Structures are given as structure tokens and as C-alpha cells.
Amino acid sequence: MQAGARQEWRNYWTLPIAGALGNSLTVLLVYSLGLFMEPLTKEFGWNRAEISFGITVTNFTALGLGLLCGMLVDRFGPRRIGILGVALLCASVALLGTATGSLTNWYLLWAFIAIGSAGVGPFIWTSAVASRFDAGRGLAIGVVVAGSGLAATVIPPLTAWLLLHHGWRGGFIGLGATFAVVVIPVLILFFRGAYDGRVRPTKAEAKSINAAMPGLSLKEGLRSAPFYQIGLAGGAFSFVAIGLIVHFVPILRSSGLDLTAAAGITGTIGLASLAGRFGMGYLLDKFDARPIAATAFALPAVAAGLLLSGGGTLSLTLAALIVGFSLGSELSIAFYLATRYFGLKAYGVLMSAMLSFLAIGMALGPLTAGYIFDRTNSYVNFLWLTIPLVLIASVLMATLRPVPDQSAAAGGQGGD
Questions:
Q1: Per the confidence metrics, is the pTM higher than 0.85?
Q2: Residue 343 main-chain phi, psi, to 5 deg
Q3: 82: burial class by Cβ within 10 Å (0-12, 13-18, 19+)?
């Protein structure tokens, strides 16, 4: 590790860890909803597309809210927005346990979830870290996005335990309460970026702070080719990865595994994503990001091939590991490249705008997988669809222009 990176870690090592816990909320429902599908179908008679449409409602509703949060982060810093977002999301997850059996009620609950989801977007946690880390930024961002990998390891078995002991209503309430108790105190104590003032800045002060930051303006960023290449690649990848993850337990259950075994294998996705996040963070600090990104984005095609092969438990576990590793890599790559191509001047709003592509993919992937299953009683056609999509994403990443040198963006020196 370079001397500059070592100094950054000595000064701010608690910040990426706090950000990782905040980022864990971004996958709370992605990794748990699949386990709720059978009890919800049994209770209300809903099919999998109807249940999955809740995620679609959340992601589309959160599109505009995410842009608003991006502007608020650029104006006030990420601390206030992140803490409030976690509190709202945990409360809204718990409220899913009050579902009445009406699909209108179900979708309204998911629309409420969108408010909290917009406030825990990954750009919130990475913006704080990017303001403190420059030489070690890749690894620091890798630690932040590793939070979702750690959560992905914990959420499936935790959800299965809650379902078995407290039913689906207690499951939703337990998930919301657990994450609120664990995450919020850590954020209050340790989550503060370089531009998080202790008092609310005036409009003139905020303008001065923004002008001092390196990077592109919003208009410049929206006119740059990398914005659309990264966004489109991320959208295609998210369609595939989130569609697979939300339905991974049902996919495994259709292979004859019981709930506990399916949840256990799905939990390995989280372990592999941790490896992807830390591994990518290290590699991005050392090597050209483009070939690394192209390789990582193509990996789900291998996982789809394994799932289509009809192999045994070993093949299913290997597919889960590949999906997890590539998912962890994708997030590290996207946030790292965003800080390098766009800088920090308008990072919040540019990153939230680029994440709109990912949100659309996340919204449509689980819905498409559920729709295909409901029509064909199989996930085979969805698995075949994933292969060309991730290969297109890989090509988009491989053809990015060289990453610009922004060594002047020494964000690690900002004060409180």
C-alpha cells in the first residue's frame, strides 16, 4: 500500500466501515424477498410476478427521489441524508409485515419503501469515502460496497430463521428492527465525509465548497460518453444479477432443495461478493480498470450456463459464487470509475443519475424472471436471456476511453 493510502487509512479507517454498514441496507429486500414468495403465495394466492412487482414499484418510484437525494448530498453532505434514509427504510421494511392481501396495499407499501431506498443509495456512502480517500480510493470503496456482500451472507439465513420461528409478518418486522439497531448507532458515531459540516452551510458557503471540488459539472458529465457506457452496462448487468438473486432461492427450490439448503447456498453469494469487492478494490488501485471490468461483467454468463446444465449441488453452489463475485465486482467498478471519470464536483447528482440505469435494470430483472416463470413454469428462458445481456455490458466496459488522471483530487485532506 502506498504511503498516501496508508495515511488515509490511519486517519479515516472507521469511515469505510460505517459506510459499509449503511450500504448493507441497499440489498436488504433483494436477498430476502425470494424467501417470502412461498408463504405470501400460500397466504394470499399471489403469483411470483405479482410479488416481484413490488421491487419494480420501488425502483421506478425511487428514480426521481434518487436524483433529489443526489442534489441534497451535494448541497448538505451525505451524513444527514444517509442516517435519515436508513431509519425510513428500516421502518418501511417492517411495515411490509402489515400487508392485507390487497395488491394495491402491497404496492403502496413498496412505494413507501422507495423513500427510504433513495436515502441509502450507494452514492451516499461512496461520496463520503471518496472525499477522504484518493490514493487508496479503490480499496476504500471496495470496503464500502462490501457491506452489501456481508449483508447478502447474513440476510438469507436470518430471513429463513425469522420465517420458521415468527412467520412472514414477523420476518419483515424482524429484518427492519435488526438492521435499525445495528446500523444507525454506527452511522451517528462514525459516518462523516470531508464536506459534512457540523452546521448547515449557507447557500454561498455551499457554492464555495462545490466550486473547490475537482471534477466535471453536471452538464459536462451528462455530455460524456463514459456516463452512458457505464450506465448502460450497469443497467444490463443489474437486470441479470438482481433478477437472478431475487429468484435464486426459487430457482434452487425448483431443483429439489429444501428452504434451509437453498438459503444456505444463496448465502454463499454474499461471501463471494465480499471477495469481489475487496479483490476489485485492490486491483483497481493497481491496474487499468477496463479489462478488469469487462471480465467481471461477463461472468454471470458462466453462472447461467451452470444453472442451465442441470448439475447437482456443486454446480449450483459454483453458480452462486460466480454471481456473487461478479456482483461485488460490478459495484466496486462502477463507483470507482465514476469518481475517476467525473470527479467530486457533482458526484452526488451524477452518480444518482447514472444509478437510474441500474435502478431500471433492478426493477425489470426480477419482474421479468417472475413473469417468465409464471408463463412457462420454468426459469430456463430467463437464464438464456441473461447471457447476451452481460456480454453486451462487457463490451461497453472494454471500450471505455482511458481513465483520466485526477491525482489532484486529494479529497483525503478535507476537514470536518
A1: no
A2: 75, -160
A3: buried
Which of 318, 310, 321, 330 is CA-nearest to residue 383?
310
Helix axes 14-24, 137-190, angle to 10 degrees: 80
All three cell numbers of 304: 447461467
Per the CB < 8 A criterion, the answer to whether 324 and 272 are in contact is yes
273: its cell numbers: 461478493
Query: Could you read off the pLDDT of 254-313 as tens digits, one per residue?
Result: 777 777 788 778 778 877 877 777 777 677 777 777 888 888 899 889 988 888 887 677
Ordered DSSP codes for 219-256? HHHHTSHHHHHHHHHHHHHHHHHHHHHHTHHHHHHTTT
CA neighbor of 31 nearest in space, from 327, 315, 258:
327
Distance in angstroms (rounded) separating the CA atoms of residues 159 and 164: 9
Helix H or strand E segment including 269: helix 259-286
Helix (H, G, I), strand (E, B) or coil at 330: helix
Q: What is the SS3 assignment for 401?
A: coil
Query: Would you identify the CATH topology of the domain 8-193+202-403?
Result: Growth Hormone; Chain: A; (1.20.1250)
Rounded Cα–Cα distance for residues 150 and 373 (Å)? 29
**CA-to-CA dists, residue 258 to 15, 30, 38, 262, 315, angstroms:** 39, 20, 12, 6, 17
User: Residue 215: what are its φ and ψ, rounded to 5°?
Assistant: 125, -175
